[in-house]
Specification:
Blueprint lengths: L6 H25 L37 H10 L19 H19 L3 H16 L7 H5 L18 H4 L4 H14 L13 E4 L10 E7 L2 E6 L28 H23 L13 E5 L9 H9 L4 E7 L11 H5 L3 E6 L4 E6 L111
Length: about 475
């Protein structure tokens, strides 16, 4: 009789194999699992700063905290977005002539293309930040001035492409350049990118700049984070300035910018004229011994006015602060200047790289300029009135006997209507007000006619005025 295996034995064998595999497979997975790197949020101590409304906020150089990209991303993710309202910026419309508008458009197009690449949304966000900076008093007063602020410093530029050699390493293709110019032109004609509001700063999410501590995080566009100043300087009333001054020529973008290529060629030609003028001058302009930042120069005969800025730049050299003043005739040899010397100044060049300030001014009474913003404010000097000039305050006269019609003490030094005679008083010449810098307003005090009586003072307790300060005297 044939014996057959019991079915229950086979079942037990199968179950034992399955159980062994159930234990072995997870064990192998655990033993051979990949190492998971835990990213921790770095504990940074960056003091929060809020600049008061009475102090202009500083524009700090771009310096980064020493962090690995992953650690920087973790830290940036831990910084919360501001819960305050984010109003859209007001439309901005650049009111400039064709030449300056073309330069401004190309500067802004360069910024959006080199900062955001071929990303249209990122380009619009960058353009809005530049426009916001133009309106803010902490930044330069022109589009090109904002974009290329600090370009002469390797680590002090505000937009990294302007000082890290990017402009020499890559030239944008024609199609990308044309698209960037359209976005720039729209931003300068009233188009607003609402998402970033009044942001004035941004950075990529894999870095942490030190200036982040004094700003509020308000928006993210792809890998870029956008910030505005904390406190009053980040509110709409702080953005109240207009573009002032002509757009400078940026030679670095001349290879692909027609507007700057023409300007660069003109500057090169005028620069050559200025160098020739330096050779023709008896000696190279030297600063004052008392102040190495001040130049008082007589202009070379025959040098075109458009070459004077290059002459000033050559004389100033690499000085971060320079004040170059020039006259068509003999220049003064000492400072400070007298009002008459300021009034006859022909040309002035002012530079302060610490504030991103550079300005050229002409005396438009003698040098005609198409752009009135390049003209000095007129220095108005009043001509002296005929008559002796009092050299000292006359001694007080003995008081006269009071008349029956007069009650109260006599007010010496102040003419009273219908009282006494002015024929014995010395005639006071009109005195010119103290002259100011070429770009400061100057007004002429209104003189009072000797025949027009001056009304009495409202109170008899007013301090008697001397003949030099008495009204109308």
């Amino acid at each position: 009789m044939t014996s057959h295996p019991v079915p229950g034995a086979w079942l037990r064998v199968v179950l034992l194999v399955v159980a062994a595999l159930a234990l072995a497979i997870p064990t192998l997975v655990v033993l051979n699992a990949a190492t998971i790197r835990h990213v921790r949020v770095p504990k940074l101590r960056i003091a929060t700063k809020v600049v008061p409304p009475t102090v202009l906020p500083p524009v700090e150089p771009v310096e980064f905290v020493d962090l690995a990209p992953d650690d920087a991303r973790a830290f940036n993710a831990s910084v919360p977005f501001s819960r305050a309202p984010i109003p859209a910026a007001r439309p901005f419309r650049l009111a400039e002539d064709e030449e300056n508008r073309a330069r401004a458009t190309d500067c802004l197009a360069t910024a959006v293309l080199y900062e955001a690449g071929a990303d249209p949304e990122g380009q619009r966000a960058v353009a809005q930040v530049v426009v916001n900076r133009i309106r803010h008093p902490a930044f330069p007063k022109t589009v090109c001035g904002v974009v290329f602020e600090g370009q002469e410093r390797r680590t002090g530029c505000q937009f990294s492409f302007s000082c890290d050699g990017a402009l020499t390493r890559w030239t944008p293709p024609e199609a990308l350049w044309a698209a960037a110019r359209k976005i720039a032109a729209a931003a300068l004609s009233g188009t607003v990118y609402r998402k970033v509001g009044y942001a004035t700063h941004y950075h990529t999410d894999w870095v942490v700049p030190y200036w982040q501590s004094s700003l509020d995080k308000i928006a993210a566009v792809h890998s870029h984070l956008f910030f505005r100043w904390s406190g009053w300087w980040g509110t709409p009333p702080a953005f109240n300035r207009r573009v002032v001054g002509a757009e400078p020529v940026i030679a670095a973008i001349a290879p692909f910018s027609g507007a700057h290529k023409t300007g660069a060629a003109l500057e090169e030609a005028t620069g050559a004229l200025a160098e020739s003028a330096m050779l023709l001058m008896k000696e190279v302009p030297q600063p004052l011994a008392s102040d190495p930042t001040v130049f008082l120069v007589s202009l070379p005969k025959g040098l075109a006015p458009d070459a004077w800025p290059q002459l000033a730049a050559l004389a100033c050299g690499d000085r971060p602060i320079c004040k170059f003043s020039a006259w068509s005739d003999s220049a003064p040899t000492t400072a400070p200047l007298e009002p008459a010397q300021v009034a006859t100044m022909t040309f002035s060049y002012l530079r302060d790289r610490g504030f991103g300030f550079e300005r050229t001014l002409w005396n438009c009474r003698t040098i005609k300029r198409l752009d009135p913003r390049g003209c000095m404010r007129q220095q108005v000097l009043a001509a002296p009135v005929a008559g002796p000039l009092p050299t000292a305050t006359p001694p007080p006269q003995p008081p006269s006997q009071p008349s029956a019609a007069r009650v109260g003490p006599e007010l010496t030094g102040v003419r009273r209507t219908g009282v006494g005679s002015d024929s014995t008083k010395p005639t006071r010449p009109a005195v010119a007000r103290e002259a100011t810098a070429p770009d400061s307003p100057q007004t002429m005090p209104r003189a009072t006619s000797a025949k027009t009586p001056v009304q009495p003072l409202p109170s008899a307790r007013r301090k008697p005025a001397s003949p030099e300060t008495a009204p109308g005297g």
